[in-house]
């Protein structure tokens, strides 16, 4: 990975930080993308120390804002005309229904639509790489997901599992459709289920209930480093240079549900997503 250019969204905490550290340790130049400069600078110092590399840079982007995403992409391309690996890692789990600045339900807006636009804007730098890779951090929660096109903001009934499951199904459908559309290029696209990573669980750690849940479940959690392992594998393994459109768990291809494998579902989501983020 020496001198490869890598972008990791949500690279300042949890699995994203672990991914950043390991890729930098392997010699990559890593752009750590996050919303907060304060948290980002603290994470940047930690990542440089733990990786032993100064080849980590902080760039700001709020994936809940299409304007912020477009600004980040323009700034990135101005500095880096080639991108070797894009790790779409950032994600949210919203306990209460919230909307983004652009009016999208928050989980779908950040986990899918924000990354959908970001990936589209960075396709030319990816195509310019010797072998570009997109790694999409999904989840086994996709199995409970449905798209709800008639109520995209979930105004008629919200619960966290419904919202998160939908966003993760969207991740899988996006991965497969983008991979199909990039056939014949040097860019591959694969998704990963990282397992249950404790730092990524969507509970409020400031409440007694949240702390109790974390304590109860902590025995079953993977560390951020364990969760990042397959994402790093997808970003780096030479033997995967022609593997695309797959869903991985613990470095192995996992079988998908019929809904997640549906080309019709994937194409419908693709067209809907392009319209939502203003690409059509």
From TrEMBL:
UniProtKB keywords: Oxidoreductase
SUPFAM superfamilies listed in its UniProt record: NAD(P)-binding Rossmann-fold domains (SSF51735)
Lineage of the species this protein comes from: Bacteria, Bacillati, Bacillota, Bacilli, Bacillales
A molecular function (GO) term: oxidoreductase activity
Protein name: Short-chain dehydrogenase
Superkingdom of source: Bacteria
Pfam families the record matches: adh_short
InterPro entries registered for this protein in UniProt: NAD(P)-bd_dom_sf, SDR_fam
Family, similarity comment: Belongs to the short-chain dehydrogenases/reductases (SDR) family.
UniProt-listed PANTHER family: PHOSPHATIDYLINOSITOL-GLYCAN BIOSYNTHESIS CLASS F PROTEIN, PHOSPHATIDYLINOSITOL-GLYCAN BIOSYNTHESIS CLASS F PROTEIN-RELATED
């Amino acid at each position: 990975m020496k001198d490869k250019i890598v972008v990791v969204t949500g690279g300042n905490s949890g699995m994203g930080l672990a991914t950043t550290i390991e890729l930098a340790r392997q010699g990559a130049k890593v752009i750590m993308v996050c919303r907060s400069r304060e948290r980002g600078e603290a994470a940047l110092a930690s990542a440089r120390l733990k990786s032993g590399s100064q080849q980590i840079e902080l760039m700001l982007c709020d994936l809940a804002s299409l304007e912020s995403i477009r600004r980040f992409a323009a700034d990135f391309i101005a500095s880096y005309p080639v991108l070797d690996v894009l790790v779409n890692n950032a994600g949210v789990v919203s306990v209460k229904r919230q909307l983004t600045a652009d009016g999208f339900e928050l989980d779908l807006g950040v986990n899918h639509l924000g990354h959908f636009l970001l990936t589209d804007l960075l396709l030319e730098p990816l195509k310019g790489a010797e072998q570009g890779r997109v790694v999409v951090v999904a989840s086994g929660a996709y199995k409970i997901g449905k798209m709800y096109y008639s109520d995209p903001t979930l105004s008629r009934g919200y619960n966290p599992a419904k919202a998160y499951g939908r966003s993760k199904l969207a991740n899988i459908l996006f991965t497969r459709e983008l991979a199909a559309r990039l056939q014949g290029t040097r860019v591959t696209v694969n998704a990963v289920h990282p397992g249950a990573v404790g730092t990524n669980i969507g509970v409020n750690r400031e409440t007694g209930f949240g702390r109790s849940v974390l304590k109860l479940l902590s025995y079953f959690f993977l560390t951020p480093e364990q969760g990042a392992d397959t994402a790093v594998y997808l970003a780096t393994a030479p033997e995967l240079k022609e593997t695309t459109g797959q869903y991985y768990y613990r470095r192995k291809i996992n079988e998908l549900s019929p809904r997640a494998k549906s080309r019709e579902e994937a194409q419908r989501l693709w067209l809907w997503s392009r319209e939502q983020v203003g690409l059509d």
